[in-house]
Amino acid sequence: MLSQADENVSLPPPVDAPDTTPRSSLTPETYLGTGKAVNYRGQGAYDLGTAVFDYPAQLPSDAFALRGHWTLDFQDATAADDGATIALNYHARNVYLVVGGYRNPHRDERR
Questions:
Q1: How far is Cα 15 from Cα 59, in angstroms, rounded to an integer?
Q2: What does DSSP assign to residue 62?
């Protein structure tokens, strides 16, 4: 307890609120960069560079896989075509994904 560690600490009074801490296991944070991709379970080597990926026949719990052309680097994964997709088999109430737009280099940008 904090008050035992420092008897001079002043803590606010306890609140009467329900404990909403999840009681079941949750999918750990998932990173798509090669530097932290610990739960990748797709088909194809997950290495730096551009490659074609596919989903496995069955995606295990708490795992992700890619499909299509992707460019991987240490901190992120970038879709390399319009058909690139991500599958995530997760256990959580919410999933938050940090994404950016895809720019097709083959489209006419003068329009």
A1: 42
A2: T
- Residue 24 near residue 91 (C-beta atoms within 8 A): yes
pLDDT in tens, 65-93: 999 999 999 988 999 988 999 999 998 88
Identify the helix (H) or strand (E) that includes residue 3.
Answer: helix 2-5
The one-letter amino acid at 68: G
Tokens of 96: 């938050």
| Nearest CA-CA partner of 77 in 27, 30, 109 | 30
pLDDT digits (tens, 9 = 90+) for 41-74: 998 889 999 999 999 999 999 999 999 999 999 9
Q: How far apart are CA 108 and CA 111, in angstroms?
A: 6
**Alpha-helical segments (H) within 8-49:** none
